[in-house]
């Protein structure tokens, strides 16, 4: 207890919430409903100087920190026992460079903050499709989402970072640190802001198709066959959800990011010719902020349990037959979902020149599959988690899945970090030893020194 009092004394002027405070339960609330961790304190810095003050106070008092922004780490690791949570949500500025080629984004900004600020200037950058997810947490671990076929994954758009390091200094990340940040987030320090590429785009066209589940296989096979010929401006996301009436719904989310709308319509007509949609929302011009807000509203505000994931270079007949078998057994909880993130082989993130130096190990077209075993109804948790884990294992048993997985969707204990990062692991460990020798950030995702996912 003595050290938290000394920490508090050193944090004069920094908003700080102790477990005894009536504000604590709300400040501690995150997306993962099962997380019972009770941090020693939650600090809410408003400036980079306050972040420095917190880091110095933590280091002097031997207290480890975790970092929280949007609160959507699925296992809930942004808050932990016996540590101080640095809640970055008060640092959420978005500034656009005078040449309009880049933007600087505060360490606690959400996808929605970024979308709104950029669209006011006729600009976009790749973003996650859920408004309330933190931009730094989304982009630095990889960042699958909008425009990834056109402009690349989130991590391939990171140009620079301002960090408060383990010494409490404000530094601009050098190439070695940027390499770690692009894939391994805040393992080396608190990211006060990221500088990212932005692109001129005033019109976003978005829509969705609802298809019969029996069309899942032919639809995905056609996507695979046309992977090289679809225009990169067409982003396709697919998912199978449970509807409230107990039926399943195969949903195809479409996003078109080029002024040449006719080309987009043609590509979508082709998709519709593979399998006629039961419902076609038609492509509509919309603001990205409205789209990601609408998607957010379809997602439960809290869940219990974990997701599983595999990444796979190609979805073929054998794999899709396996999917059909597991869809037959899909539990009915509304949060239990199969979601596929298709990174096209023509994306900049799959090509030489578009992939920046990073610790993210997969640098070619692939599909990142989320077996969402989380639930809204707590009592459904064992059934949904077992379905997701069995599904994941069956994929691996085909020998066609990559051994590297997407950290943000990997359930705790499923993979070691060495497996997650593959060939990037040794270099990442070296950077960690160099920049955080005393382990101040050891609890921050990814927990490199423990090696645990
Ligand atoms: C509903 C939902 C939808 C999702 N959709 C997608 C998606 O479409 N595509 C995709 O790729 N992923 C997606 N994810 C995964 C999500 O991107 C990651 O879980 C992400 O890390 C969450 O970031 P956050 O800031 O919201 O979470 P937090 O729990 O607040 O942060 C997660 C971790 O990010 C690091 N971090 C955050 N901010 C900073 C900072 N300023 N400095 C240093 N480190 C920091 C810390 O290690 C922290 O523990 C989704 C997750 C959920 C729950």
UniProtKB/TrEMBL annotation:
Top-level taxon in the UniProt lineage: Eukaryota
PROSITE patterns for this protein: FAD_PCMH
Residue span(s) of domain FAD-binding PCMH-type: 35-201
Signal peptide: none
InterPro entries according to UniProt: FAD-bd_PCMH, FAD-bd_PCMH-like_sf, FAD-bd_PCMH_sub1, FAD-bd_PCMH_sub2, FAD-linked_Oxidoreductase, Oxid_FAD_bind_N
The keyword Kinase belongs to this UniProt entry's keyword annotation: no
Key words of the record: FAD, Flavoprotein, Oxidoreductase
Keyword Translocase: no
Recorded family membership: Belongs to the oxygen-dependent FAD-linked oxidoreductase family.
Entry protein name: FAD-binding PCMH-type domain-containing protein
Organism: Aspergillus pseudoustus
């Amino acid at each position: 207890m003595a050290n938290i009092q000394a920490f508090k004394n050193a944090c004069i002027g920094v908003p700080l919430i102790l477990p005894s405070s009536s504000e604590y339960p709300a400040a501690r609330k995150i997306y993962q409903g099962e997380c019972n961790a009770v941090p020693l304190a939650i600090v809410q810095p408003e400036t980079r100087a306050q972040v420095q003050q917190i880091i110095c106070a933590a280091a002097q008092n031997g207290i480890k920190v975790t970092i929280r922004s949007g609160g959507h780490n699925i296992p809930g690791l942004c808050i932990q026992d016996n540590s101080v949570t640095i809640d970055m949500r008060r640092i959420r500025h978005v500034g656009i460079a005078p040449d309009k080629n880049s933007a600087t984004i505060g360490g606690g900004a959400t996808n929605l903050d970024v979308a709104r600020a950029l669209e006011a200037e006729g600009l976009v950058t790749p973003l996650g499709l859920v408004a309330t997810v933190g931009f730094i947490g989304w982009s630095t671990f990889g960042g699958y989402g909008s425009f990834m076929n056109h402009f690349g994954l989130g991590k391939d758009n990171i140009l620079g970072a301002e960090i408060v390091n383990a010494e409490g200094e404000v530094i601009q990340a050098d190439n070695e640190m940027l390499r770690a940040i692009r894939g391994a987030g805040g393992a080396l320090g608190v990211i006060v802001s990221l500088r990212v590429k932005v692109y001129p785009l005033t019109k976003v066209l978005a829509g969705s198709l609802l298809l019969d589940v029996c069309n899942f296989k032919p639809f995905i096979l056609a996507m695979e066959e046309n992977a090289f010929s679809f225009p990169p401006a067409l982003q396709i996301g697919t998912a199978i959800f449970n509807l409230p009436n107990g039926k399943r719904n195969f949903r195809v989310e479409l996003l078109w990011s080029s002024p040449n709308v006719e080309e987009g319509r043609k590509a979508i007509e082709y998709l519709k010719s593979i399998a006629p949609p039961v419902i076609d929302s038609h492509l509509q011009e919309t603001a990205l902020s409205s789209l990601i807000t609408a998607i957010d509203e379809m997602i439960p505000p809290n869940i219990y349990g974990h997701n599983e994931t595999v990444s796979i270079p190609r979805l073929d007949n054998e794999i899709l037959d396996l999917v059909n078998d597991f869809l037959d057994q899909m539990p009915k909880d509304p949060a239990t979902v199969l979601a596929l993130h298709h990174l096209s082989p023509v994306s900049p993130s799959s090509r030489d020149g578009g992939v920046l130096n990073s610790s993210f190990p997969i640098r070619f077209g692939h599909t990142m599959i989320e077996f969402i075993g989380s639930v809204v109804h707590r009592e459904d948790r064992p059934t949904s988690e077992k379905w997701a884990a069995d599904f994941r294992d069956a994929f691996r048993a085909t020998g066609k899945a990559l051994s590297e997985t997407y950290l943000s969707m990997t359930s705790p204990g499923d993979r070691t970090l060495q497996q997650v990062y593959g060939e990037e692991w040794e270099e990442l460990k070296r950077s960690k030893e160099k920049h955080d020798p005393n382990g101040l950030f050891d609890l921050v995702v990814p927990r490199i020194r423990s090696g645990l996912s």
